[in-house]
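Reviewers asked in the last cycle whether our approach scales beyond single polypeptides. To address this, we selected a multi-component target totalling 470 residues and predicted its structure end to end. The input consisted of the following lines:
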Amino acid sequence: MVRNFPATNLMRNSAILCGFLLAVAGKGGLVYAQTKEPRARMILRVELLVYSGRENPSWQLTESESKRFFAMVETLPKQATAPVEESLGYSGVLVFCSDDRHHKSIITIFNTVVTIQQNTKSAELRDHGRKLEEWTVKTGRAKLDPELYRYVLMELAPGSQNQSSDL
Amino acid sequence: MLKITADIFSGIPNPEWIVDGDDAEAVLRDLAQHRSAVASLDSGFQGLGMRGLVVEALSEHVTEEHGLPAIFRLANGGTQMESKGIEVAVHLISAMLKEGAGKHPAIANPDALTQGMRDFLKENITLSRAAIEAILPSASITTVNPEEIVAELECAYEATWFNPGFWNNPAHQSKNNCYNYATNRRTDTFAQPGRASGHIYSAINCTQVTDGAVNDGASIHCAPAQETPRWFMALVIAPGPGFVDFHWYRKAQQGYWGHKPGGTAVRNYDNSGHTIFDPRTANRGPYTIFCRFMYAQRKMIVN
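The resulting structure, written as C-alpha cells, was:
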C-alpha cells in the first residue's frame, strides 16, 4: 500500500535524501532530524524512460550534479496525487538514489509530476514548467546519442504532445 | 456517446462510427430492457467474416444508468436473444452516415463510412454466420472472407485472457519489455529479438528485428498445430530520426491487443487512450512503421 507523507521542508540537507526517506518510511510520517548524522555516500543514477524494446539509456550524476538535483527538488511544492500517463515514446526520467547504508529510493519525473518513492511510501511534488525534468535530461547530454537527445528536448518543448498545461 | 465497430475485417481496418444523442439513448434504453441481447466481447462467433458489432461507451454513465458493460458485442451469435441484437445492430448501422458519425478523434478511418459500406454491413449482419447459426446451430455454412488478400486471417492461433497483473507486479515489471509480453515469456531479462538464438538484430528495422524473432522461433507464416500455443503478435518500428526502437503487441482473447512499453505497465490502449483493436491503426506515437503480424510458436525461446 502506498502512503503519502508531507513534503514541506522535505530535504534540508540533500546529502541524506535516501536515508531520510527510509526514516520516514519507518516512522510513518515526516520526521526530519538527521542533519547531524554523518553524510552518507550516495549514488544517483538517471534512466531516460524512452524505449520499449531496447534498454533505456542511463547515466550517473556527478557529486555536484547530485547536490544541484536535491537543491531543485527541495524547492518543489507538494501536490495531490496525480496519475502520470505513460505512453510509447519519451515518458520522463527515473532517478535511482542509493547510499552506502543500503537506503534506496526512486524519483520519477514526468510532465510536471515528481514522485518520490521508497518501499511502500511515496510523496508527490509539482515540477512547474518541467524545469527539474529538463535539467535532469540535460545532465545526460554528453552520454546520449545526439539525435536521441534532440528528440527528447523536442518532446519537452512547450507545445509538444507531452506538454502539460501546468496550471 | 457510443463508438460502434463493425467487426468484420481483419486485414484492413474495421469501419467505426459514432452514435450520439437521442439515437444512442434509444439504443441503450432498448438494450437495458433486453439485456440478454448483449454479448461479452469474447463470446459468440469469432471466426472469419461478420463477428457482429462492438459497442463501446465513450461516456461513463452507460454502466451506471443503463446497467450495461462499457464494451460489448451485438449480433454475433453470443446471446440467447440474437433477433433483438440484430434489430439493434441494423439500427446502429443505419446511423453510420449521419452527420458527425465519423467526426471524432476515436474514429480512425472516417472515409470508410460510405453508403456502399452501410448496405454491405446491413446485408452481412442479417445474413451473418452468427445470425444463421443462432437459428440453425448445426447449419453448415461456408464463410467468404471479405478480404482474401490477408493471409494471416486464415491462420489458427491462441490467445490468453488479458491479464496485466501478471506483468505489472513490481518484482517483474521493469525486467520485462514488449518482446517479453508479445511472446508471453516473462524471462526477467528485458528480452531482445534474436539474442536467445545468437542472432540479435544488427540494426533496428523491420527486416532485422523480424529475422531476430524468427531465429528465436517465431513464424511469419501460419504455425502448425503442434506449435500450440501460438500467440498472435504485431511488430512496429520507430524509424527515427532521433528515436529508433522496436515495439510489439499481442492479441488478447477479448479481441483487443495488449502491449508493454518497455519497463512500464502492460495496457490495452494506445497513445490516444483508445482500446487497441488493430495495432495498424492505433496511435503508436513515434513507432510509425507497421512491419507485420507474426506468431510466437511453442518452440520459441527468448532472452
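Chain A has four helices and seven strands. We regard this as preliminary and will revisit it once experimental data from Aim 1 are available.
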